[in-house]
Amino acid sequence: MNKRVFTAALLLSLMLSLSTRAGLTVTKGLAAYQVLQCDENDTAQASCSGTWTQDGDMPVQGRLMQDNAVVLEWQDIGTTVSGTWQGVLEGIPVGGPYTIELRAGDDTCLINPVLAGDLWILAGQSNMQGVGNTIDMVPPNPSAHMLAMNGVWRTASDPLHILQESIDPVHYRPESEEEQRKAVEAARNWPKGAGLGMPFAIEMIQRTGRPVGLVCTAHGGTSMEQWNPDKKEMEGESLYGSMLAQVRRAGGKVHGVLWYQGESDANPDAAAVFPKKFETLVAAIRQDLHQPELPFYYVQIGRFTHPDPKPGPWNLIQTMQLAAEKSIPNSGMVASIDLALDDLIHIGTPGLKRLGVRLANLVAHDLYDGTVLAGPRPENASYIDTPYGKQIHVTFSGVNERLAAQGRPVGFSISSGSEGDTVPFLYKVELPEDAPDTAILWVHELPKNPQVWYGRGLDPCANITDEADMAVPVFGPLPVIK
Description:
alpha+beta, Rossmann fold, Immunoglobulin-like, twelve-stranded mixed sheet, eight-stranded mixed sheet
């Protein structure tokens, strides 16, 4: 065992038992601040194992406490055998914080706080890792905990992803413990680190009353190839293997996945194979976690204010992400094209808050009977020649109440042909009150083979949402029906 793993294991063992009489310890499977994943009956189970230093075999019992009141009475969960034991405390209701009390003979062990609720994997690259300015961040909540990258549970707070404290070499490989200590301290004090995980968690807690556990696995600047499921046998030496290891540390089951990645694949070679790799990743996660219908929600990549890359692959990734909603069951996407950046590619903290709520809207709608729809999705574009001028009507499905924009609605463009350059024929966009699911594009001329785009290019100005702040995604080319 190397020094980093030994240090993490020692820290974990210290946190496992907050009050322990000599003899009974928990060494695996249950820890202070842990969030246990509830099943379809809104109950969870705590699987754990440990040691007992006394002679002979002895029944191990467990019970559940909250505010000094008994929630679950003592139940037999296992038996000590040759100094070790393992057991399962069942029937833990959604909620908390709880204290789990274990006993074997006269020896007792207390583990608290423990919550029962929903676990969410946070995966992808830097916009999921979180590099927003650490200004006006979402504050911690006692019902939101996180499995940090060192494998230890704690109250969730930004920065969620501190790569430098990871026990998996794929995220960080220090030369010494002192180097790692300094790197972790610097990361904690870095003026960047806000992400969408905290806003999502707090929004879900407010809507459902259920505790949330965030399983941190994201890593900035990473490609789909680096997340290749074929590398899972490399375990902590690969991103996919490290993610699976984190889920095992979290108890083995999760409620769903939040994914934000694609920027690193926005080049001609990688974009060409992006759809297959994306679908393969989702299928592999579901297979490896033995959860074939595991919900998978993701973010369509946004803007990139860089002068060199060509926009074609970037827009291709965006349109493929939109199409994946239909090809991947139990999935959903939110758009980010309207959100302000903190630098050339990273969404700022105010935008990350909105993005977290948008993801919560999807989850609440699909899993908790929420009323907010997924947001505007393009259906068709038709040409109308009126007495006042030529119009293209773009109709959307999934609109919450009506389309809306702060100031002048922008983001649309027209091309001649599906691969043609933008033509300067569009001079006004209206969002009529009497047609809440329609955007009217006024054009002074209709080009040959007209196509409609939204959010085309690397750094478009796009600001159209609906009344629930679900943004219109990047799309195109959408043929105009004459």
